[in-house]
Amino acid sequence: MKKINIFTPIDFRIIIMTFVGSFCSIGLLAYGANVQNWSTLVASFGASAVLLFGAPTSPLAQPRNLFGGHLISAIVGVSIYQLFGETWWSIALAVTLAIIAMMLTATTHPPGGATAMVSVLNHANYSFVFLPILLGAVVLFTAAVLSSRIFPNLREYPLKK
Q: pLDDT tens across 5-61, in order?
């Protein structure tokens, strides 16, 4: 019987790069939320950090998907909340329409589904699209780009077409 190794060898420098990028970006957003009382933290940013720092070569982690997925999903979620309020079916409708909108615009970013849901659960208005969603996406993107520049030749982010 063939023995399977579930741990793939990985360059320790990539682990450090992942730590630095994720810690700095999520840390900055959490600092803003917890210390400065800014609305800068949304749970879906944690999932985006997994993609940007743990799987940066994934098409789902690329800038178009990061920004488009979050922004489109926030707009959909806020719109559904503004039209229908918070109900079980408005939450389901927001997530479902966000998925379809991301598919139609080629901006699928799985954390976007959570962004749509949080929009409804937080009773968000359209300012939510800018703060925290756009700001958070900018912080995550900037940290991903900077970490790939600080640790050159390990990973490229964003991918060049």
A: 677 788 899 999 999 999 999 999 999 999 988 899 999 999 999 999 999 999 999
High-pLDDT (> 90) share of the chain, %: 86
What's the CA gap between 8 and 44, in Å, rounded? 27
Handedness of CA 95, 99, 104, 106 (dihedral sign): positive
Given phi > 0 = left and psi -120 to 50 = alpha, else beta, which region is 159? beta
Domain ranges for the chain:
12-150
Q: Which of 51, 98, 93 is nearest to 74 (CA)?
A: 98
**Predicted model pTM:** 0.93
| Whole-number Å distance between alpha carbons of 58 and 70 | 16
Helix %, strand %, coil % of the chain (to 5): 70, 0, 30
For 122, the token pair is 């937080």
Amino acid at 140: L
Q: Quote the CA–CA distance of 89 and 28 in Å, as a whole number.
A: 34
Residue appearing with tokens 């598919």: 103
